[in-house]
Amino acid sequence: MAEDGKLANGAGRIDFATDPARYRHWKLATDGPVATLTMDVDEKGGLFSGYELKLNSYDLGVDIELADAFERLRFEHPEVRVVLLRSAKPRVFCAGANIRMLAGASHPHKVNFCKFTNETRNAIEDASEHSGQRTICVINGTAAGGGYELALAADHIILVDDGSAAVSLPELPLLAVLPGTGGLTRVIDKRLVRRDRADVFCTTEEGIKGKRAAEWRLVDDAVPNSKLEESVAARAKEFATKSDRPEGEKGIALTPLERRVTPDGREYKYVSVAFERDERLARVTLRGPDAPPPASVADMAAQGATFWPLALARELDDAILDIRLNELDVAAIVFESAGDPAAVLAYDAFLDLNRDHWLAREIRLKWKRVLKRIDLTSRSLVAIVAPGSCFAGTLSEIVFAADRSYMLIGQREGDNRPPATLALSEANFDWYPMSNGLTRLATRFLGEEKPLDTAYKTIGQPLDAEQAEEIGLVTFALDDIDWEDEIRIFLEERASFSADALTGLEANLRFGGPETMESKIFARLTAWQNWIFQRPNAVGEEGALRRYGTGQKPVFDTKRV
Amino acid sequence: MAEDGKLANGAGRIDFATDPARYRHWKLATDGPVATLTMDVDEKGGLFSGYELKLNSYDLGVDIELADAFERLRFEHPEVRVVLLRSAKPRVFCAGANIRMLAGASHPHKVNFCKFTNETRNAIEDASEHSGQRTICVINGTAAGGGYELALAADHIILVDDGSAAVSLPELPLLAVLPGTGGLTRVIDKRLVRRDRADVFCTTEEGIKGKRAAEWRLVDDAVPNSKLEESVAARAKEFATKSDRPEGEKGIALTPLERRVTPDGREYKYVSVAFERDERLARVTLRGPDAPPPASVADMAAQGATFWPLALARELDDAILDIRLNELDVAAIVFESAGDPAAVLAYDAFLDLNRDHWLAREIRLKWKRVLKRIDLTSRSLVAIVAPGSCFAGTLSEIVFAADRSYMLIGQREGDNRPPATLALSEANFDWYPMSNGLTRLATRFLGEEKPLDTAYKTIGQPLDAEQAEEIGLVTFALDDIDWEDEIRIFLEERASFSADALTGLEANLRFGGPETMESKIFARLTAWQNWIFQRPNAVGEEGALRRYGTGQKPVFDTKRV
Q1: Comparing A130-134, B7-11, B72-76, B493-497, which segment has the lowest mean pLDDT?
Q2: Could you report the predicted ipTM of this complex, rounded to two decimals?
Q3: Vertex A118, ends A306 and A133: CA angle to 5°?
Q4: Angstrom distance (rounded) from CA B455 to CA B473
Q5: B509/A280 CB distance under 8 A
Q6: How far is B489 from A178, CA to CA, in rounded Å?
Q7: Which residues of B touch A498 (CB under 8 A)?
Q8: Using one digit for the tens of pLDDT, what is the confidence trace for B100-150?
Q9: How far apart are the CA of A85 and the nearest CA of chain B, in angstroms?
Q10: What pTM was estimated for this model as a whole?
Q11: Distance between CA atoms of A279 and A275, rounded to whole angstroms?
């Protein structure tokens, strides 16, 4: 059940599925290698009732469409090498996250909203870094707060130099919160704005215009209106030339997911979700492929969105988002799987063999994003490896993403299926870096080469529970006598702990080793923002977020912490 | 004024000055190259009234003594190569931070308490990494929460294997908070405990004992009582042999600071602090040396604690801590300086020339720690470079630590002192890495070599305001016409912003680039802990921290954020 008031469409849950024909806030047009994604937010199109999305301000509904557009550009338009991000509103690029929406939103919704918008911006950068699809942001007026943060996700920012268009991060002076969608991190670590200038910029409500914005590196070019289109076209051409996107390939359609929603579950083609509400659990079962891999990349392309790895990734992504936003009371997600491990490995081998094909690349990158989404999901993650399961290669990443994993030794009484196995593939050593830049196995064996080498040598071998435990791939290998009780007691205990403390614990233990701009956004920046979102100076009755637009000044506790 | 209730000694402020003769909680003994620091907390010796420090639990007062002991070991005992950290209580090493103290403490005190204890543990690690003084922790019983986190700061942990001694991080199951003194980060990133085992460990209230603790890497050795002393002695000998501490040198006494406390200021020998309470400012003036550097290292050692760089560093450290803990309403610290820049550079040159001398090394490392303490101080930091100032070399680090700096172009009307200058020395390029591992100049010019090279070429040259601005060393160079108004308006505006939002902003903008274990502790871990310290599940009337020890179970909001 969605947490915040009433969804404007009368539904009981937030739906992440959409497509361009249903967009209310964006227009997507392609012209050969250049796509134009135009923001034109429908004021009356808010996800919840109670606010209007003026001046291209956004809520989660607007961002769901943005994320969908970028997904489609990758799969449906392999010919697109440059995306122009523009506004259809005169003199306004984007006013950022809608303040009335934020002021009225619950703490969990605010946090989950920020997380999703961060993931969308990271996906824009991922397309640039790994798919040869670069983004140019054209700022025709005001780009304030989240509006400028959206621009920061682009490779290149062009600002109209007309004496009024400006970029700004006015959150602190105006609302007593931080720019929560990566703004502070990207200003410093991506655009390399000098830290004292960043301090000036982030405390200047009206922002910075024209040449100074360029000189301070807040934008790349400040150009007069008369030269804008020429400048945009030249830059688009330059970027298109450098891209390694394929020549002459046709995209595949991201057809609607097969999904059946019941009060206590979700049924997709390859994913089932069962809620055990009294235990505060969501059991997510992933099913292996029902056929061997296709004979050729042409056949893969012909299967399109029904190609098993892609179908499963999309379904899993939708299921995770559904739990995050609509099922706040779920303490733990228990991952199980069903199928033939060898068949899963065969798909990994197929993707590995065709790793240079654009679609195979996109599918790997999609899995990378879905797995990152799981890492960043603030619920306890548990993997159960039992007879009948198919945690192999790509699917075993779920086991390594889990906070804990349990694997059954041998068979269960009354079940004559063979004992469970776990198996690795090349995918586990290279394809899916976490947001810290390391693979899940490298994070698991942080700073050590030997166990990683040992694991590498087992590629393709089915490992039984005792072997998997010995190599360090699962937390506990248990026999049938202990199995049910141990897991039940663990899950009960987990549900009894403070939800907040678990969120903090998991956010710290999951990401060992180095930090990247992405992990800094989710750790340092987000954690501070979450703290501020709890402080009376922002969210109290007299706080800035509540008082914004009322004409009353906020009242602050002046004590520094 | 101290924030929390009544100080047990009846004073109005927390005092950071102490010495071994006054310790109530620790005993420091040295025997050649081995020092033993024994924790024996006086139950009745709490810093505030209202709780008893049972079972070697600690509060800020206990940690002030610990920090003092490690400072003295570095300066007063250059012969000490190994520190044994032990407990005088039977079957208890340390029970961690006192829970009743935490439950009764204000949010700012909790946060500042954690920050100081983190800095103390970092200083223990710094002594090991940079001063050849290693620490062995001997755990004779229970090491719970902060008790185990203290052990984690050591190079080596020996646990008695007697069937009952255990290490634990019970904060989450017991109190619904995180281990807030680096525990999560050090378990993962220093001791390389596998993340799923860390999850088990941090959710197991009773902790882990004996061989399993060693197997999981939570400790280095688990030895029976009968072999304990032999094992400790052997390890101490091994570490002493490897140390690069000097042979045959005598320490210098860290004599009490000269300090006069008035209602609106502090007067040290080289530091003045003036509080402008209506403006919520602390003006900190640093004075340059009153004599040229000594002729030799022997003369430096003879000057001891009165040697200008050391005296100034100690005074500045005390002043910063005083503001942090006792002056919560100060929004900004304005740094000024007075003296001869050439004289300051002469001291840097002296320290550089004698960089291999143990005392010169310790003084550089002390400055490094003091400057890090400034970086981590949650107040707006402002540097004012005006005629008469001496921001050169080491002192100019204060300008680069500041969130913003203002430098006057030329002279002020009615003041015939020559225009201000800024000057660099080798110190700015090497001696003082921040907690992100980069120098302040490298952080300022993040990812760029050219401006750093340009700055390096100016070493020793007095730079006027326009040159300093051109090179990028100050935020604004202003002439006399704008000077006073610009700074006044800025400081007024700063004081009008939300204190919390500024804390979050500064924590993000100050630390660009890479992260280290240390910066992760202050960013990711601390920010999450601060958030949890605001959440009802921990601190609410029915929260775990409040209900601990009452016999009543806490009541949790089960929603995950």
Answers
A1: B7-11
A2: 0.95
A3: 60
A4: 8
A5: no
A6: 22
A7: 172, 176, 535, 537-538, 544, 554, 556
A8: 999 999 999 999 999 999 999 999 999 999 999 999 999 999 999 999 999
A9: 27
A10: 0.96
A11: 9
